[in-house]
Amino acid sequence: MSRKEWLTFLLYLAAVFAMPLLGVGATGRRIEPFLALPPRTQFIQPAPFSWQAFCLVAFTVVMSVAPFLRKIATTPRVPRCATPSRQPFPASGWVGLALLIVTWIVAWNRFPWATSFQRLTFTPLWVGYIGVVNALTVVRAGSCPLTSETRLLIALFPLSAIFWWSFEYLNRFVGNWYYPDVQTLSASQYILEATLPFSTVLPAVYSTAAWLATYPGLARGLDRFIPGRVAVSPALGFVTLILAALLLASTAIWPAFLFPLIWVAPLLLMAGLQQVLLGNSTLRRALVSGDFRRVWTFALAGLTCGLLWELWNFRSLAHWEYQIPYVGRFHLFAMPLLGYSGYLPFGILCALFIDCLRSAFDRNEKTLSVGRGKRLL
Known about the structure:
This protein has helices spanning 3-26, 51-74, 91-108, 122-141, 145-148, 150-174, 187-198, 201-212, 234-253, 255-258, 261-278, 282-289, 293-313, 343-364, and strands at residues 177-178, 321-322, 331-332, 335-336. It has 377 residues and is mainly α.
């Protein structure tokens, strides 16, 4: 990894850490409660449900997604010249499926013999899922990240742990989710038990995006989503960075109103850093060329993984719960319905993080492609 990629990650983490603290300091509050381990986010009391806020957020989400859905729906289907040859479901997929099913059963039940490791089932559950979704990609495309980009996928695990810890940190300032039983853990126990499942986030989203990319109809027409090119320059990158920093600080000042920004501000921050330091990213390529297929695919991957995170969280022993202001109704599993919209920008941010790591591998390897041909993503 080059110095620029390291600098991109470090500046991202520094801004995420510092800006909310500056926001807290601007209000005169003590910062100690926001730095406690394990976290104590329940001291933030959520505002009551509001139909006006619910409708406003719902309208914003619909208006953001509607242009993509309209483009997909109005683009004529292109008949395939030939049906791609399907591959057999690989052995790694069967192993992953067995691990997923067994761990799911253990996670949702309270077997006496599983008491000692009941809290740790989330990690093998997601490792099993990663194996299954990579196997499904092999069936449709002949290869997958696990086989064609093995080193990259492995490297995503430690990066993922750091990546999701940054969101856990941001949540301290808005208190949108909390872990009911972590107060009984020591700081070291909490860090260990949390870091293991956090490490599966980026590999799961990337593997899911690769699988979704084998269904071109999901992003039909988005290769020509923006008619003309959008001017993208380093100056725009600096403006984006300043905006992201202000939003991160503002979220800590007005958490009841600006809590959705913890999903938007990090995306703007990473996009700005990549534009200024690296000059390239998924978002930049999309804005310049008008091809939003990768952006949309990763957004869908984030939402898909979000649904599964909430499903498997629903009855697990080590779980989280939500206290979202103004829109905390109409739950699907533990998550209020509108909360799922945060997984869309989250998926795009995952793509930007993967871009950073992938560029380092691309300089050293020339065979990081699906089926030794073009990549799925």
